[in-house]
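#lab-general

N.A. 3:47 PM
ok so I finally got the sequence cleaned up, no stray characters, all 198 residues accounted for. can someone with queue access submit it? mine expired

B.Y. 3:52 PM
send it over

N.A. 3:53 PM
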Amino acid sequence: MHTTNNLISNTFDYADLELSQQVYSQFSSGKVITKRIYETYTQQFIENPLYTELYKHLDSHYSLLYKHIGFELVFNAGGEFFHIRRDDSSEDADENATKVQALLLVIARFWTDKSFDLDDLANEHFGLKAKHIDEIKRNEQYDRIRGALMPKDDWDACVRFLLNRNFMYRCGDGHYVVSSAGMFFIQHHVKKYEESIS
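B.Y. 4:20 PM
back already:
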């Protein structure tokens, strides 16, 4: 509740009920909410209304709402995405974050080993194709990493793991693009690596 000139306003008045419910559903499914999402019908990236809703009412409503239910609402400006984390930082969340980052780094390593531009992973006209996934599957080093992270899952399950959390989007049959959140983590680790060797 905000008090302005002796009038009390409810912060829920600022939020769109339907969008707020969709935001909560995405967060409770372990997803991040990115600024742009891939629309398969139009075959292009479009603005995400859930991101817009969070951005417009971040300070006036959503930050406090998620704090009240035991979460921190995190806005990552560099990667243009939102996510939540528990105030007590659960071990399960840390394990999922490790899996996401390691799988993205395998994809980035594969991509750079092919001398492809990393930015093309986020471009819907390029992106990761089924043939690339097949090459990753056949690589023993990458498969050892997958086995250490997700021993019960194959590479198709690993791709679904990233898709289900909005770190990648499906652009068509066997065609994927890395989201802004996924690219943020890839670029973050590339920068750390470059700093370590300079």
